[in-house]
């Protein structure tokens, strides 16, 4: 199927600094401040003599934010977006914010105006109210644990609200006029708004050339359909590497599946467990680096953005070998593990779903001077997710469990000359005399306390949510496994081991526990803490190289 003709003028996918982390969405031109001011004046019906100040605020991965101060109007924010998914992404975000404003108590921006035609500013934009407060990330070290616990309780209350605002089907929201079974109607004054589950809005569906791939984009009837579409995209990425690389290896690819009684594919089995060819040989493991490269060669580029015009580096045999291994692993997930996770689910009607903010970290939570939450932002890629995927703790509370509060006096002091004056943590200016390790451990402890508060509150407010959370470990692990595959770092090796455990019948094997145990083992086995080596950037790089060498030897055993 030919790639669809999608107008993405203004967008280019390339590399900002390092090919290790994959491509970034880049602006081929900047939005002009004069054009923004002219459009805002026109849309707000301002006279030439009325004040309209436009100033740059911040930049996200997919957008630029501008503060708008217009005479006679509330302070606003204009979000100018890259055309990663033209028209659809803006329409989804507007529908999501309007739904939340109409149906929930969540503190979200109110949409004032929006445009998808790109004729004035050159990009799509949304004009919305500016919420008060500062990001929790900027105030984290100066916010009390009591205030943070209150935030955890508030987040639990919002989760309970969203749990009761059900949809049917998986995908992004869209305002529609036509009636359908998956419609929520809201009366806003004299305007009746209908919100339907429609095309998916997750980043993986428009990343790089994914927007042109021939895969279903929703609304999905079931979790199985949704996860298989994600894996199809990942498998396509590996096929692209294989096709571009040396073609001197065996290209046979078997799906290892047979028919279920209902006509759908199911994994081959013997009398004990699922049987597959080996995922990767012991010899190949020595050549697959700790940071599995995927589409990049894992090397750092120190040049400027002009280097981003270049195509991916030449694909060599090692890249092709890695891609074949990753494709094999993704195929196992798609054809076997997904089926095992949802074999008991009927697909006779669309699966229940709820809105889920998958990126609810401290940078997207606003607080006032007293630590009270004032807003939740960044809803641009939010979709209606299946309940099992949405019933989990916010990203803010993710992290290693640390029950004991770290003793400040046992940690090293902050060294202002460390790292050649370029510390890896921007929060070091708020070090309060202590090195980064102390603050990391304190944050882990506070997250652990907040997580307990969050789950206690969820148990009281919405017991059904906690039942769903406790009963969906394997499915959450499966979704996490796909996330790790897309990340292309050490994750695929842990996914490999988790897959093997699941295929042996250990469906309660916890992938996250494996990852945490692995992190702890590497901390013990691989030398000093960050505090002990803060005096030298070169020492840190040597340590990382040593860790990679230890990992490579471990993979041989």
Strand arrangement within the widest β-sheet reads: 3-4-5-7-6
Q: In percent terms, what proportion of residues is strand?
A: 5-15%
Radius of gyration: 25 Å
Question: What separation lies between the terminal Cα atoms?
Answer: 44 Å
Please describe the biggest sheet, giving its number of strands, its sense, and whether it closes into a barrel: 5 strands, antiparallel
Mean pLDDT: 79
Structural class: alpha+beta
Q: What's the β-strand tally? A: 18
The dominant shape is globular
List unreliable stretches of 5+ residues: 178-191, 251-310, 525-541
Helix content, binned percent: 25-40%
Number of helices: 14
Protein name: Aminoglycoside phosphotransferase domain-containing protein
Pfam family, one: APH
Organism: Knufia fluminis
How would you describe this structure to a colleague?
The longest helix is centred in the middle third of the chain and has 26 residues, at 317-342. The protein has a five-stranded antiparallel beta sheet with strand order 3-4-5-7-6, with helices on both faces. The two termini are 44 Å apart. It has helices spanning 33-44, 88-103, 136-139, 145-164, 223-244, 282-285, 317-342, 387-390, 436-461, 463-470, 473-487, 491-503, 511-525, 537-556, and strands at 11-14, 24-27, 52-59, 63-70, 76-81, 111-115, 124-129, 134-135, 167-168, 173-175, 183-188, 191-197, 257-259, 265-267, 352-356, 365-367, 373-376, 383-386. The chain contains 14 helices and 18 strands. By secondary structure, the chain is α+β, with helices and mostly antiparallel strands. Residues 306-315 have a biased composition (Acidic residues). Residues 254-273, 401-411 have a biased composition (Basic and acidic residues). Residues 56-166, 322-388 form the Aminoglycoside phosphotransferase domain. Residues 242-315, 401-434 are annotated as: Disordered. This is Aminoglycoside phosphotransferase domain-containing protein.
């Amino acid at each position: 199927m030919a790639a669809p003709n999608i107008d993405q003028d203004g967008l280019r996918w390339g590399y900002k600094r390092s090919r290790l982390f994959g491509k970034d969405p880049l602006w081929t031109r900047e939005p002009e401040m004069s054009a923004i001011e002219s459009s805002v004046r026109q849309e707000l019906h301002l006279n030439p003599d009325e004040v309209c100040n436009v100033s740059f605020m911040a930049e996200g991965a997919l957008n630029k934010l501008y503060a708008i101060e217009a005479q006679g109007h509330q302070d606003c924010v204009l979000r100018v977006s890259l055309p990663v998914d033209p028209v659809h992404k803006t329409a989804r975000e507007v529908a999501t914010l309007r739904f939340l404003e109409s149906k929930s108590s969540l503190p979200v921006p109110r949409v004032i105006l929006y445009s998808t035609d790109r004729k004035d500013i050159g990009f799509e934009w949304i004009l919305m109210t500016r919420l008060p407060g500062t990001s929790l990330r900027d105030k984290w070290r100066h916010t009390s644990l009591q205030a943070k616990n209150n935030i955890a309780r508030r987040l639990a209350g919002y989760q309970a609200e969203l749990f009761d605002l059900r949809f049917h089907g998986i995908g992004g929201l869209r305002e529609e006029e036509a009636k359908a079974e998956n419609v929520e109607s809201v009366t806003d004054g004299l305007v009746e708004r209908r919100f339907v589950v429609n095309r998916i809005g997750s980043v993986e569906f428009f990343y790089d050339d994914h927007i042109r791939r021939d895969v279903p984009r929703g609304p999905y009837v079931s979790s199985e359909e949704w996860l298989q579409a994600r894996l199809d995209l990942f498998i396509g990425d590996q096929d692209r590497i294989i096709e571009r690389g040396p073609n001197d290896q065996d290209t046979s690819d078997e799906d290892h599946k047979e028919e279920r009684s209902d006509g759908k594919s199911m994994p081959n089995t013997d009398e004990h467990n699922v049987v597959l060819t080996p995922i990767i040989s012991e010899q190949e493991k020595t050549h697959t680096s700790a940071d599995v490269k995927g589409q990049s060669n894992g090397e750092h580029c120190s040049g400027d953005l002009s280097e981003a015009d270049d195509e991916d580096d030449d694909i060599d045999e090692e890249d092709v070998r890695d891609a074949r291994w990753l494709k094999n692993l993704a195929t196992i997930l798609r054809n076997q593990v997904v089926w095992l996770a949802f074999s008991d689910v009927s697909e006779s009607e669309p699966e229940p779903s709820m809105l889920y903010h998958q990126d609810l970290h401290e940078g997207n939570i606003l607080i006032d001077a007293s630590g009270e939450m004032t807003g939740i932002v960044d809803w641009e890629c939010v979709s209606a997710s299946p309940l099992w995927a949405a019933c989990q703790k916010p990203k803010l509370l993710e992290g290693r469990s640390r029950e004991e509060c770290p003793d400040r006096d046992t940690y090293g002091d902050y060294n202002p000359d460390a790292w050649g004056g370029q510390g890896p943590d921007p929060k070091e200016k708020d070090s309060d005399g202590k090195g980064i390790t102390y603050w990391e451990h304190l944050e882990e402890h506070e997250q652990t306390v907040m997580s307990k508060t969050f789950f206690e509150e969820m148990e009281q407010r919405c017991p059904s949510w906690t039942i769903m959370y406790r009963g969906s470990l394997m499915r959450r692990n499966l979704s996490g496994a796909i996330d790790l595959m897309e990340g292309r770092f050490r994750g695929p090796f842990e996914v490999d081991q988790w897959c093997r455990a699941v295929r042996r019948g250990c469906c309660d094997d916890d992938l996250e526990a494996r990852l945490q145990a692995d992190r702890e083992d590497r901390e013990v086995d691989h030398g000093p803490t960050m505090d002990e080596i803060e005096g030298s950037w070169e020492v840190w790089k040597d340590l990382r190289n040593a860790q990679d060498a230890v990992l490579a030897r471990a993979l041989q055993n």
